[in-house]
Amino acid sequence: MQLAEIEQIKQQLIKLDSAAISDAMDSLNIPAGLSGIIPRNSGMKITGPAFTVRYEPIIPEQGKFLNAGNYIDEVPSGHIVVVDNQGRTDCTSWGNILTYKAIQKGIEGSVIYGSARDVSEIRRLSYPLFTTGIYMVSGKNRAKVVETQCALRIGDVNVCPGDWIFADDNGVLVIPLQHLLTVIERAENVEKTEQAIIEAITNGEDLVSAREKLGYAVPWEHNS
Amino acid sequence: MQLAEIEQIKQQLIKLDSAAISDAMDSLNIPAGLSGIIPRNSGMKITGPAFTVRYEPIIPEQGKFLNAGNYIDEVPSGHIVVVDNQGRTDCTSWGNILTYKAIQKGIEGSVIYGSARDVSEIRRLSYPLFTTGIYMVSGKNRAKVVETQCALRIGDVNVCPGDWIFADDNGVLVIPLQHLLTVIERAENVEKTEQAIIEAITNGEDLVSAREKLGYAVPWEHNS
Amino acid sequence: MQLAEIEQIKQQLIKLDSAAISDAMDSLNIPAGLSGIIPRNSGMKITGPAFTVRYEPIIPEQGKFLNAGNYIDEVPSGHIVVVDNQGRTDCTSWGNILTYKAIQKGIEGSVIYGSARDVSEIRRLSYPLFTTGIYMVSGKNRAKVVETQCALRIGDVNVCPGDWIFADDNGVLVIPLQHLLTVIERAENVEKTEQAIIEAITNGEDLVSAREKLGYAVPWEHNS
């Protein structure tokens, strides 16, 4: 995908929210939510193609730090780092050094299936971070990068390099690249249906009649 | 219960906190805490009679949204919605549309034994929301309303229609209607005992002597 | 340890963070993190010697409150209360009365392996509190103090009276007294290494070369 195309899709997606996109994914019967990965500062919303990273546990070795490996230098601007550290909360796979480099490179944010540290500093820098946990114990000597830009499996969801990530206060979603345009179109329709219902009910209409009239059962087919 | 009576009880209860009410419930040996249901915005305190709603799981059906059911149009002003979605965190049973309708109807807040979505919007609207989890995946096609104004069982606590709910930053309590006046009286006494102890210790008295002198062992019998 | 010595060590430690201290502990192969105990207000950082308290469950007795026991009058100024209530989240072992007394005595903060209540009030007082959970149900008649200034075992970490606690937004660490000076020295070196790397990468250097040049593999041996 060309940079200009990425930017255009971002502008469309960022107007939506995770609820509408999830409903669009539901209409295609594709699981999308990364269960248990939650925002570590409030009010963040990010979207972009995934750069995937897979960690594996290693046996600690006394007296030295085995670096966890490097990949950040390879992540393209505008992408979102997605780290699979198997949901481990006993050690971290994100911290302040990676954050400074990510900001400097124009990376959009990080989604960590596992824990992160330096969370005060990351909040102060307003860097969008979504993780399973927060802890201070390093991943060094506990886990290492074994593969990048590979297919990940997080819960019941597949994440391939270039799949799109959408994350906000409700959590994190994965949109497979081949369904991206369909999902955007359906999510926009869902949003329109919901806005129409909200308008009707704040004008005093009953929810049951507003839903029926405005097509809540198939909101991705909205046309008005 | 008449509206005027409800208002008067609310004014008494809202001066208290969940700790004092829980101690009063303890003195009657009635379990009251809804374990694991936590506030989704900070500094909220609500109380009112429960309007109960029970969900059951359904088998997802591809290609359409089966509405989860409607009940919000029936909830009286001043009440608190209590939803039993079996603590599920893989799908939601509260969101922005229900919130707008709840605000418009003068509903006090929602207690969800399960997850909610649209949490940014709900925080922006300052709507009091207490849930097991936050997620974005809809309950549509995953769970449906099977009963309203029925007895619920959440953990080891019973919630009947008209039982009173009290929720603050510590969590959520249920006060059975038949014990309401006793609980208020005892909780007011607990509060007085604790205030007297806090006054004594901030004046430098040892905690052990302050507790003994001020009847901390049976604080609901406070009389001064 | 004399008061002046305690103060001097605090001034050294408080400039560091839990990540650097954890890395120093890793270099000595000593587990230090109290997993699952998290900050209850944001932006707090505390350090000091531990005053330890051990609770045990008791069988509830109807109709009265058995006080959980008192220890707060014995805690020296400048110390940190560490309570082992076995990680229980069904009842609390910290609240507002203990907080008022702790502030009045100059106690630095509390680390509760279990739950606390009165969290709104504690936040308003800016008292540093780290706990497993938040709930409102009292520990009275459910747990009691059985020992103070004893050895605790929290997860895989030992806490002895006088061991040092360090807690910030990432969580809580225990530094055994006999390793304190080594840990401080190594953590200061870790911090210097990390600062040097951050400076290099924000100047545009690749992470991989910055790490290699600046000795990231053995950061506690920093010398420049």
TrEMBL record, chains A, B, C:
Give the required cofactors. Answer: a divalent metal cation; Mg(2+)
User: Which is a GO BP term held by this UniProt record?
Assistant: methylation
- Entry keywords, A to Z: Magnesium, Metal-binding, Methyltransferase, Transferase
One Pfam family from the record: RraA-like
Gene Ontology molecular function terms on file: metal ion binding; methyltransferase activity
* Residues binding Mg(2+), per UniProt: D118
InterPro entries hit by this protein: RraA/RraA-like, RraA/RraA-like_sf
- The superkingdom listed in its UniProt entry is Bacteria
User: Which residues are involved in binding substrate?
Assistant: G95, N96, I97, L98, R117
This protein is called Putative 4-hydroxy-4-methyl-2-oxoglutarate aldolase
* Organism per entry: Xenorhabdus mauleonii
**Lineage, please?**
Bacteria, Pseudomonadati, Pseudomonadota, Gammaproteobacteria, Enterobacterales
